[in-house]
Each structure stands twice: as C-alpha cells, then as structure tokens.
Design a protein that fits this description.
The chain has 389 residues and is mainly alpha-helical. The protein has three domains: 14-65; 91-169, Tyrosine recombinase, N-terminal domain (DNA polymerase, domain 1, Orthogonal Bundle); 185-375, Orthogonal Bundle (hpI Integrase, Chain A). It is built from 14 helices and eight strands. The strands form three sheets. Strands 1-2-3 form a three-stranded antiparallel sheet, with helices on one face. Strands 4-5-8 form a three-stranded antiparallel sheet, with no helix packed on it. Strand 2 and strand 3 form a beta hairpin. Helix 7 (201-210) runs antiparallel to helix 9 and helix 12 (347-354) crosses helix 13.
Amino acid sequence: MSIRKNSRKENGSGSIRKRKDGRWEGRYSIPSKDGGGSYIRKSVYADTQEELRKKLTQITGEIDDGIYQEPSQYRLSEWIETWLEVYVKPTVKDFTYDSYSGVCRNHIIPDLGGVKLKELSTTMIQKFYNSLLKKGLSAKTLKNIHGILHRTLQQAYVVGEIKQNPTDRCILPKVPKPKIDPLEDEEITRFLEAIRGHRYENVYFLTLFTGMRQGEVLGLSWDCVDVQNSTILINKQLRRTSHHAGAEYILDSTKNGKEREIVVAPSVMMVLARQRAWQKECAEKAGSAWNNEWNLVFTDELGQHLNHPTVYNNYKRVMKKMGLENKRFHDLRHTYAVASLESGDDIKTLQDNLGHATASFTLDKYGHVNKTMKQKSAMNMQRFINKVS
C-alpha cells in the first residue's frame, strides 16, 4: 500500500509528517468498533522518516490483510499482575507462585513496571539485565529472573498483547555448574560419630544412605516402608507452603511428580526399626496427646511432623563442630550418589534411585570423581602396567 504525505483517506491509508519537536508522526485509520462505518485515526511515532515509513507500511499492510491488532495499553506491572492471577496461580503450587511473585515485585517491576508492553524492546531489557549484574546478582539469579520475564511476555504474545517476545534475543551470561561437594570417606566416618545419639541421627542416616531429598525423608510414611523386601516407596514430600513465618506444612507430590521405589541396605532397615521402636515408646508416654495423623516415620515426641529449618539448622551445627561449615544438607544426597558410583552402581540404577528424569542428567551431574575414586583409578592403571610390563 502506498503512503501519502498529509493525506486523509479510507481504512488503512497512512500519512506522515514531521513534528515541531523533530520527531516523525505517521497517521492511519481503522474501523470503529461500533460497526457504524466510521473510522478512528491512530498515530505512530519514530525518530527518523525511514523508520516511520517502515512502521507505517507494516501497520497499513496488516490492516489490509485483516490481521491488525491494537497495540497493548498494558503497562508491564499491570500485565504481570494479570499474568500471575489468571495464568500462574491456578496452575502451579503455592510455593512456586510465591517465588514467581517475589521475583516480579523485587526485581522486574521496580525497574520496568512503568513501561508499556508495546514499548518494551530487546535492548531495553538487555540493559536491565546488565544493570542487575552490576548490582552483584549472580548469573544463576539473572537466569531465573529472565525465565520469569520471558514467561510473562510469552503469554502476552500468545494472547495478542504484543507481536513478539523481546526477551527472545537477549544474551545471558553463562551460568557455571554448581560444585558438587560430597563428603569424603573419612568425613563420613566422622559425621556418623558426630550424630551418634543426636535427636535427628536417624533422619541424617537415612538421608545419607538413601539419597532422598529432605522433604522426601520428612514426608516418608510407614505404609511406604516394606520391611520384608527392604524397599522404600517415595511418593510424596513434606513441603512448606511458603518461606514466610507461620507457613503451613502439607504432604505434596515429589519434585518431578513421580513415585519411585528403592531397595535399601540392611543397615537402613535396622535404623528404621529403631525409629519405629522409639515412636512406640513416645506414643505410650504421650497417651492421648500422641497425634501422628500422617503416619510419618520421623516425628517429634508427640507425633507431630518435623520442621525443615529445625532439621537443617541442627545439621549445620554438627557440621560446624566438625569444621565443615560449608557442607549443605543437600550434600548428603550428593555423597550418596558418589558413594553409589564408587561401590559399582551403574548410572541407570543411580538415576532411578535419585528420581532423576534421565540418565544423561545423572551422568552430567555426577560425571566427576572424588579423591578415593581417583586413587583407585591410579592403582588400577598401575596393576595394568605391572601386567603388561
């Protein structure tokens, strides 16, 4: 379609003029929504005549083709609120919703919330990302922020609020792989000595020698323990509904929503037997005050579930006394994984036991070796050298 300077023509035709402020304005008309045959004049702006001609040509072409959509009047903050309530809240767990909402309100809205969706550009968002890095945010945190901003703008694109997702072409820094820091053999021995007699000894022992996640251990129920076959069915987790004070606890599905069954060592079953005996004593002492409504394996003296922070903080105190204050609770799971490989388990078996989606993920995560495995490898090579020399 041709563009006429200063013309006022029928539907879709465009005109351009230079404003007093030096910017270029293009005007075009679209049918009014009342269906009465009248037209509404709209304007689009650009810094140069060439840029304006491109914009106006695209718009008038879309009008002629019947695919034109009004530019969104949403500001990003308004769209984020709509996205969270309409598209996120009904489809995710409360914990995930709180996480998304926190990232939006703490990072995205303060810097970009006042910008209209139609004015967001890749360069603008890239500058926003760069500013976050300058403030000291890590590459991993930036990746999380980008993921959420990308999702909200992708939904805006799907429903027609914007014509493209400006985050698609942003460049993110490479996120370094998190360091896996399992306990070495002598550290495991010291740890077992340190927790002997501790009120959470059985929790830590089971975590260390099954590779279960903290929520899975604390959410384990007795009906999932098969003494005869030495198996544990992992089909749920104990989860806090939020990070806020006074958050409630619920039994929820596992991290990937799938259940798995693991065969455990005899020593693990012995620990579970001691745990059951301890619970029986507590129930007798508590009498009517005993209330283990979820039939959990690990409870306090009255049958109530254990709290994540309490279990974690006690673990950190043990580690600090050992001079290993940098060890995380999740490192017990990593220790189990490395010990399994060191003991001769194949990657597929380890994948199933840990509940990973694919064996390739397990291999990528635990493809490294610890000091003991390196030493064994060296000795194996020496034996081969001796054999062929």
